[in-house]
Amino acid sequence: xxxxxxxxxxxxxxxxxxxxxxxxxxxxxxxxxxxxxxxxxxxxxxxxxxxxxxxxxxxxxxxxxxxxxxxxxxxxxxxxxxxxxxxxxxxxxxxxxxxxxxxxxxxxxxxxxxxxxxxxxxxxxxxxxxxxxxxxxxxxxxxxxxxxx
Amino acid sequence: xxxxxxxxxxxxxxxxxxxxxxxxxxxxxxxxxxxxxxxxxxxxxxxxxxxxxxxxxxxxxxxxxxxxxxxxxxxxxxxxxxxxxxxxxxxxxxxxxxxxxxxxxxxxxxxxxxxxxxxxxxxxxxxxxxxxxxxxxxxxxxxxxxxxx
DNA sequence: ACATGTGGTTGCATTATGAAACCATCCGCC
DNA sequence: GGCGGATGGTTTCATAATGCAACCACATGT
Lengths: 149, 149
Fold this sequence. Notes:
The structure is a homodimer.
Chain A: H1 13-21, H2 24-34, H3 40-47, H4 51-63, E1 67-71, E2 79-83, H5 85-88, H6 91-104, E3 113-117, E4 129-130, E5 136-137, E6 142-146
Antiparallel strand pairs in A: 1-2, 4-5
The first copy, chain A, binds a DNA duplex through residues 1-5, 39-41, 44, 49-56, 76-79.
């Protein structure tokens, strides 16, 4: 009985999210998909991970509705992995992870990459948390309650 | 040679973040810490995970500077695990994960929890991505470039 | 037709996870 | 200060996940 414990039935949305996308390779696959990767081989070359692991992850992502298979854009008989709306919705999480990493996981001057607005080419603003009425919220200004809906 | 591959030296901030906090239990620990948990036993009871796993995760979190140990607030000889600024900075990631989970991992009507503004008690606004000049950005409006700094 | 590229699956060694048992302090109480 | 339970772990051992390499089926290029 050393089965990995599942948080799929937790009532906490954070737990459920982590259950689905809280895996290093899974997130890296989504990241690459957002940057345009579509084919099995592209993911494998970019990530350098074992093919069996990639196969398992891709299958899970398709089952979870984050990626979907569609006929290859280049007209070949192969298939493309493309992000569904649910997969595209991971974007803010990716941004949050990226900004935290930029701030806390790199020494000053260390080479890295940044996210820019495609139109202006300028670095995007940091994510901010706002109340329903627009007030800026910081750490400690929020709390969790059971949903009453 | 089946050592779990490390992404610590990746130049991608997302990869580095995932390396540190991209673990289900790790994130759950941070979540509980944000909700006020401080003691080993509190985490264990709340999460229901094996004590050895918890011990390993807590040690890693302290080494990574996300939690720090300090004398217990209740005056006992035990120690409290409290979030450092680096740990508090995970808050936006937590919010992003939560909002994605709320939207995509729950059936309508299923019991869950929501994050509210402590002052008004109302649910917080969804995270939005903005350009440097304030324009609202959607998925596809951003791209990644090497940092030139 | 044949070699090569693509997209996997299978087998096996190594590593991480997890339940339960065990152990060292610490605390409250008498 | 001595005793029982709470606290905060460590150890042991079984099971599950990861990763490398080898293999395989089908598509494509020439």
